[in-house]
Amino acid sequence: MQRGPAACYICQLASTPGKFLPEKAVKLGVPKGPLFGQLKAGNAVQLSNGRTVQPEEVLSLSFVLTPRTKDALLVLRASTDHCQNQPRKYV
User: Fold this and answer.
1) What's the average model confidence in pLDDT over 15-32?
2) CA-CA distances (angstroms) from residue 23 to 10, 46, 51, 58, 61?
3) What does the alpha-carbon distance between residue 65 and residue 27 come to, in Å, rounded to a whole number?
4) Phi, psi of 73 (to 5 degrees)
5) How is the chain split into domains, by residue range?
6) Angstrom distance (rounded) from CA 44 to CA 66
7) Handedness of CA 52, 21, 72, 12 (dihedral sign)
8) Average pLDDT of the residues in 17-27
9) b/e code 14-24 from CB counts within 10 Å (16+ = b)
């Protein structure tokens, strides 16, 4: 159990898109141009041959919040007991 003060941080998480991988898009038959932009924006695109390419096929790993986790929060609590006798430094 903590007896002294603590530092708490609350962070609201947001989706982070992955990096666009143009070499994967080209391998899947996506022509360079506006369709690259659509995929970068997270939109699926349909090719002239009828195939649909999903953004997750051409993006690196990402952190995506789903509707179930859209309001995800990270709460971090750290004890400051070890700091009580230390001089305070302000930068």
Assistant:
1) 90
2) 38, 18, 17, 8, 15
3) 28
4) -125, 145
5) 6-83
6) 17
7) negative
8) 91
9) eeeebebeeee
| Residue 70 scores a pLDDT above 60 | no
The dihedral formed by the CA atoms of 38, 39, 42 and 43, expressed in degrees to the nearest 10: 60
The position carrying tokens 């919040």 is 65
Residue the block writes with tokens 């143009």: 22
Look-up: residue for tokens 């002294």?
4
Tokens found for residue 91? 């930068």
Q: Dihedral angle at the C-alpha atoms of 61, 63, 67, 72, nearest 10 degrees?
A: 160
Tokens of 87: 């001089």
Tell me the C-alpha distance between 21 and 39, whole Å. Answer: 10
Q: Which two tokens stand for residue 43?
A: 């939109």
Place of tokens 């003060």: 5
